[in-house]
Amino acid sequence: MIIQPVILSGGSGTRLWPLSREHYPKQLLAPFGEYTLLQATVKRLEGLQDRAKGALQNKFDITDPIVICNEEHRFLVAEQLRKINIRPETLMLEPVGRNTAPALTLAAIQAARTKNDIVLLVMPADHIIQDMQSFHDAVLSGGALAKQGSLVTFGIVPTRPETGYGYIKVGEEMTSVGDPLPIPGHCIIEFVEKPDIDTAKGYVEVGNYLWNSGIFMVKAKVWLDKIGQFDQDIFTACQRAYIAGHVDGEFYRIDKASFEQCPSDSIDYAVMEKITHDSSEHAQSAVIPLDAGWSDVGAWSSLWDVVPQDAQGNITKGDVVTHDTRNSLLISEHRLLAGIGLEDIIAIETADAVMIVHKDHVQDVKQIVTRLKSEGRTEHQVHRRVHRPWGDYEGIDVGERYQVKRITVKPGAALSLQMHHHRAEHWVVVKGTAKVTRGDEEFLLSENESTYIPIGVKHRLENPGTLPLEIIEVQSGSYLGEDDIVRFEDAYGRLKK
Prior knowledge:
By secondary structure, the protein is of the alpha/beta class. It is built from 11 helices and 31 strands.
């Protein structure tokens, strides 16, 4: 059996605002722990091969992952994977979001073109799973059923009545041909929408309902057959978008015009809920119960399920001091955060925003994001520190006709050769060595040296050294927007067509 991981790394950045932003969604965060949610998702597969050797008789292989992400996040995703020494088989870029069914269809088209009879393991990049052995056992069970032609999902064993998740009603146990399943699978009676609290309590008491996790296993060929059967529009649009796509460096760009015509739908709605469970059906649906310390980190309150708390029930990160505070979440990124006399409060401090919310109202965070959008603000889109493929920059000060930034350039990296119509720039090197192109000139700047870039002059900043380059940039002019950049050369494919 060959398993092809498919990592779905979409996301709009609203649920964990203000830490997450539209251009820096939650899967790129490491709210607690060494790895980001994306990195932890990929590393979750470590040890699966060894676990299979002890549980299965048949040959088992796992390939490098297909990662699907928003085009805007491509450099961030690629950099996070590089930091854990992961080179994906394909890093596929969606030009627009169309939900999980089209994303899986694109991955299945890619996998089916290169490998025969491959099983896809579809994992959202923003989940937390604590018990790796239980997760690996569930994957081996799911793989065995998927190999037989089943469309397999994973149902989370409920720990409480929950109104924020959909449910799966579980039927009779299923069997596999060959190796015994480490965790028995079950047929699916029905998918159930998010219930009210009384209904959720009844589900937990009855015991044959599981939370819908959004993790799936299915043969690439089976998925393509089923999406073609149940939603021909998605199948056709994805085929066209993939075929018309092209390789761009380390990325595969899906054709935008074709993909914009694709309907938006989830894996559940597009296929899983439409499959009959009659034994004559070629590909039955199945669910594997998963009890592995799972959370989809769907809201700030969900961290209580997976993050250790102190004796007062608090979760803290950063420079935080508390007094007479209980059952609260306090995160500080830039300054001292003091909590006094608080209970059931979430307070998140970032460089440009502070959010304070009661635990019972965390689902309303998205209302604040919606309001920021409607008012034309930028705090829902980016942090004060903005990441670029060459490094990052952070706004320090801004006023009428000027702004100040701290720019960090990675070793060996370079900004594009560019010019501005409306602003001049003053650069002061505070750490490292800078190679500067200014018009026809090229020269080096060391620490405490500076230069001036007039309006309309072509220029480039490079880091020829082995350590990060840090400079302070003072911009001055009549317009200071990021869209006042004309690029002439760029190593990262960002030239305007």
